[in-house]
Amino acid sequence: MTGPSTPHPATHIGCHVFTFGTDRWCVTLAQELIAADPTAAEPHPHVGIGDLGVFLGGLVRIDPDHAMTRDLSLPLLIAPLPIGQGSVHVLIDGWHRVYRALSEGLTDLPAYVLTAATEQAARYPLPHYPRGPR
Ligand SMILES: [Zn+2]
To answer: Per its UniProt record, what InterPro entries does this chain match (predicted)?
Structure first.
C-alpha cells in the first residue's frame, strides 16, 4: 500500500477525522474536495447499511441522542481504502446517521463514494504508528 506523501496540514484545526486501524481520513477535507469538484466522489442514492449495525457501540462509538438529530438526507462518505489489488470500503462519515436510520427501520442511505484520488488526498498516516518508508 502506498500512503499519502503530505502530512495533515497544520492549518486544519478542529477538523473532523475518522480513524480505522492505522489509517486516518480528514472528513472535513474530503467534504471540501467534493464541494469544490463534484467529480471528486460518486453519488449513490441507495447504499445498504444493514450490515453496519454490528460496529455500532463497539468499534464505532456514537451518542444515541445526538444520532436522532442527524439529517438522513446528507450523504454518507465512503472511502475505498486500497488493500492489495482491490479495496475495502470504509464508512468515514455518517455513523450517527446509520444509527438513526437502523433504529427507524431503514435499510439504505444516500452516500458519496470517494474516488481513489480523493480518498488518497484525504488520508493521512497516523503519526504515532509509522508504517515504514513511503
Ligand atoms: Zn483536516
So the answer is: ParB/Sulfiredoxin_sf (IPR036086)
